[in-house]
């Protein structure tokens, strides 16, 4: 009892307080043990001279533990412990000793060996091999005891080969013609072990590479990758890439690359050409079949040379330029146009574009002494300029240039400014024969292009209306910089609608790098005074910053200069709305050529859009003053944007409408207090919103059907209001 207790206490205390008292000795040393695999083994160790020693076991340098290790007290300063294994395995064999530590010193017992006897243990397991048919090769197998000695026996293809040999054994085979399995047997006095079964593989040609992919494709080179096919039991060492192309291009010779990685770049390709490419890979025996072809087309590049032999022929009526077309090789792409540039003195004119390798230009007079050069263009860009030639008169008299010469230049210029457009659209639509040679017109020759082109030659037009000419303050001027759009960037198109206060036109707004379809509101002349313009610009500067999905975004304001007038007319530039105004859209749904059904849900969406837009405006302290379906716009996605706010403030306030006829006012949308007291507030906008909702529900009917504009005031004052439309649900 007391012994067990002592053991427990020692274990619990962690045995860390060994104290030396005199000499430390081992009263029992572990002894050599030889056991058969699966049996139990026990090593003992006893230490004298320490009060509470921690005796550890080591095997081949590392600490080992046995789960049931106990420390037994044999007397004062005398302790014993054991290392035991219940079922010995091969790996338990080895050199063991016990060890104690005291005051920084380590005391070790004598070592003892545990020797585990059993069937042989393979120290060299035979491995798979791959050979070419008939090739000699060696197989190796090694097994150890104890107990030794061990003998090895070979089996190949189900038959024993030769007799027992001492381990380790190497089997020499002079050659096989087909794949075969093999293993070795190892035998000692305890029994027989059988190794894993290995295979002699016969090396074959590899399979074709797969998944051939283009990684990058440039004008003159391509990089491809692929997955190797089955190696044929022999590592792939290289792959070769074969390129084919049309007969007129130089085909790069096959490229041989070491693998891995399975990737290669092929250079020396010609731009703008169709090629095919395939790969095959090699192992020791030879090449695999080829992969499938992949087809690719190298991108175009700019022409490498300028057109040659530029000549001119100057007559009384025209200037003819000729040059020698580049051939395919030199073009490096698909010819889009030849660009002709001429300069007079130090002034370089806009380039002209021509489809053919000649140009006929009218008005030869203006080319006198001009320096002309030509370059070829592909869709990627234009090549180098030719050497310039000087247009010198023939030694005969010249006629005064005729009047229509300008149009010749104009056409050329049209082409020039539309180059980007044309290149994108492709060449086939481009050619147009004109009386002036093969100058080509821009595709979809829109007013934008003709406008800017006309300007280029109209040097006598009045200077553009500028802020300076209006006398606005410097502070406002700075603010307006990004609101004010130069008139020349706008080309007005047809009228989209006319109202009491001006007209709305389709237009194209062209900036340096973009062109955009817009709607332009041109205010009527008679409602603008100098003061109005300044006010209008101020409001525009303020509104430019408005951004809400249900409020139309002001793009800018432009000033239209009228000949003979001191003051320009302001033009308000707004995004072009595909579906026009809400009122027209509602009417079309009922009365158009192709009526369509507007779901109640859609109508509610319209109302919500208007409400959201109006909420935003009122948060910005903007009173709309003219909310109505006709002043709401519908974009491509049928989203409603509130429009026509604010800028029209002046029109509705003060004297203007008192002078005019009241019947011109949209009285059916105007709140009662606005009619009586000219008082406009957010609340009067809410009134108009109610009328607008009524318009939406009735799909564009005129409010108060049967009531004349002139009767509205009396009608409302009596307490009458808009009636629920007949087909409107009460909850709506
Ligand atoms: C224990 O075995 C080892 C190796 O087998 C041997 O060298 C050593 O002499 C043996 N010790 C004793 C005491 O037999
Ligand atoms: C096989 O082994 C023998 C000697 O053990 C050696 O001479 C011979 O080159 C080996 N053959 C092969 C194919 O490795
Ligand atoms: C392998 O085949 C060749 C001819 O195909 C023959 O000469 C040779 O003896 C064969 N070798 C073995 C080991 O069967
Ligand atoms: C491929 O061509 C491009 C331009 O043509 C060049 O910048 C690049 O270095 C080339 N790459 C190789 C691998 O030759
Ligand atoms: C590659 O082009 C050839 C003809 O040039 C065609 O027969 C083949 O089907 C094409 N291969 C692929 C993968 O498009
Ligand atoms: C270009 O001019 C040179 C001499 O100036 C002439 O030899 C050559 O044949 C001309 N090339 C063509 C294609 O006309
Ligand atoms: C062309 O240059 C010559 C002299 O180089 C000059 O006499 C002539 O007036 C110039 N003609 C024109 C139209 O500029």
From TrEMBL:
Q: Which Gene3D superfamilies does this UniProt record tie to the protein?
A: Immunoglobulins (2.60.40.10), Phosphorylase Kinase, domain 1 (3.30.200.20), Transferase(Phosphotransferase) domain 1 (1.10.510.10)
What residues does the Protein kinase domain cover? 490-732
The protein's GO terms of the molecular function aspect are:
ATP binding; metal ion binding; transmembrane receptor protein tyrosine kinase activity
Localization annotation:
Cell membrane
The record's SMART domains line, in alphabetical order, gives: FN3, IG, IGc2, TyrKc
Taking the record's annotation, the residue ranges forming a coiled coil are none
Sequence ranges assigned to domain Ig-like in this UniProt record? 21-115, 120-195
Q: One Pfam family name from the record?
A: PK_Tyr_Ser-Thr
Identify the stretch annotated as signal peptide in this record: 1-20
* Residues annotated to bind Mg(2+): 631, 644
Q: What parts of the sequence cross the membrane?
A: 405-427
What are the record's GO terms for cellular component? plasma membrane; receptor complex
Q: Which residues form the active site?
A: 626
| InterPro entries per the UniProt record, alphabetical | FN3_dom, FN3_sf, Ig-like_dom, Ig-like_dom_sf, Ig-like_fold, Ig_I-set, Ig_sub, Ig_sub2
Q: Which PANTHER family match?
A: TYROSINE-PROTEIN KINASE RECEPTOR (PTHR24416), TYROSINE-PROTEIN KINASE RECEPTOR TYRO3 (PTHR24416:SF279)
Q: What is this protein called?
A: Tyrosine-protein kinase receptor TYRO3
């Amino acid at each position: 009892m007391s012994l067990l207790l002592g053991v427990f206490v020692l274990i619990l205390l962690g045995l860390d307080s060994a104290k030396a008292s005199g000499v430390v000795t081992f009263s029992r040393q572990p002894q050599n043990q030889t056991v058969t695999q699966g049996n139990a083994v026990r090593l003992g160790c006893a230490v004298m001279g320490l009060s509470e020693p921690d005796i550890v076991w080591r095997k081949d340098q590392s600490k080992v533990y046995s789960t049931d290790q106990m420390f037994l007290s044999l007397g004062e300063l005398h302790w014993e412990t054991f290392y035991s294994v219940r079922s010995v395995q091969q790996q338990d064999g080895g050199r063991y000793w016990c060890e104690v530590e005291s005051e920084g010193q380590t005391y070790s017992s004598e070592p003892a060996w545990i020797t585990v006897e059993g069937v042989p243990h393979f120290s060299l397991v035979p491995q798979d091999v791959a050979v070419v048919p008939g090739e000699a090769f060696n197989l190796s197998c090694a097994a150890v005891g104890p107990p030794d000695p061990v003998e090895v026996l070979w089996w190949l293809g189900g038959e024993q080969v030769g007799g027992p040999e001492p381990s380790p054994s190497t089997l020499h085979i002079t050659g096989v013609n087909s794949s075969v399995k093999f293993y070795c047997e190892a035998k000692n006095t305890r029994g027989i072990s059988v190794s894993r079964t290995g295979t002699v593989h016969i090396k074959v040609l590899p399979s074709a590479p797969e998944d051939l992919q283009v990684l990058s494709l440039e004008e003159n080179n391509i990089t491809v990758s692929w997955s190797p096919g089955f190696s044929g039991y022999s590592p792939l060492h290289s792959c070769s890439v074969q390129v084919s192309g049309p007969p007129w291009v130089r085909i790069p010779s096959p490229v041989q690359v070491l693998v891995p990685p399975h990737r290669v770049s092929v250079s020396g390709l010609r731009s703008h050409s169709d090629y095919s490419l395939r790969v095959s890979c090699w192992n020791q025996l030879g090449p695999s079949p080829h992969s499938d072809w992949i087809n690719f087309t190298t991108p175009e590049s700019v022409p490498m040379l300028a057109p040659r032999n530029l000549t001119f022929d100057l007559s009384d009526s025209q200037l003819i330029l000729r040059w020698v077309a580049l051939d395919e090789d030199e073009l490096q792409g698909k010819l889009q146009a030849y660009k002709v540039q001429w300069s007079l003195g130090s002034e370089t004119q806009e380039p002209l574009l021509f489809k053919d390798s000649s140009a006929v230009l009218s008005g030869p007079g203006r080319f006198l002494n001009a320096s002309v050069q030509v370059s070829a263009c592909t869709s990627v860009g234009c090549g180098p300029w030719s050497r310039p030639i000087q247009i010198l008169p023939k030694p005969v008299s010249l006629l005064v240039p005729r009047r229509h010469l300008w149009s010749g230049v104009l056409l050329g210029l049209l082409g020039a400014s539309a180059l980007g457009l044309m290149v994108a659209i492709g060449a086939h639509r481009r050619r147009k024969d004109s009386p002036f040679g093969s100058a080509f017109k821009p595709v979809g020759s829109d007013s934008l292009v003709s406008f800017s082109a006309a300007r280029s030659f109209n040097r006598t037009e009045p200077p553009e209306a500028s802020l300076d000419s209006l006398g606005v303050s410097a502070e406002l001027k700075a603010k307006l910089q990004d609101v004010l759009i130069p008139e020349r960037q706008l080309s007005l198109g047809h009228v989209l609608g006319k109202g009491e206060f001006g007209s709305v036109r389709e237009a194209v707004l062209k900036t340096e790098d973009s062109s955009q379809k817009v709607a332009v509101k041109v205010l009527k002349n008679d409602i603008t005074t100098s003061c109005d313009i300044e006010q209008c610009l101020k409001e525009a500067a303020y509104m430019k910053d408005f951004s809400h999905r249900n409020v139309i975004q002001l793009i800018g304001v432009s000033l239209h200069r009228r000949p003979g007038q001191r003051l320009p007319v302001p033009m308000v530039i707004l995004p072009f709305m595909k579906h026009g105004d809400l009122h027209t859209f509602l009417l079309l749904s009922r009365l158009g050529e192709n009526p369509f059904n507007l779901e109640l849900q859609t109508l509610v969406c319209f109302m919500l859009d208007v409400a959201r837009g109006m909420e935003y405006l009122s948060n910005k302290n903007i009173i709309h003053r003219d909310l109505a379906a006709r002043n709401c716009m519908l974009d491509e996605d049928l989203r409603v944007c509130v429009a026509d706010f604010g800028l029209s403030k002046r029109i509705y306030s003060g004297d203007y409408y008192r002078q005019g006829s009241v019947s011109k006012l949209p009285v059916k949308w105007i709140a009662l207090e606005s009619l009586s007291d000219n008082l406009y507030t957010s609340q009067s906008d809410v009134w108009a919103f109610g009328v607008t909702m009524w318009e939406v529900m009735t799909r564009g009917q005129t409010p108060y059907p049967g009531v004349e504009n002139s009767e509205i005031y009396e009608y409302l004052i009596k307490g009458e209001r808009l009636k629920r439309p007949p087909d409107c649900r009460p909850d709506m």
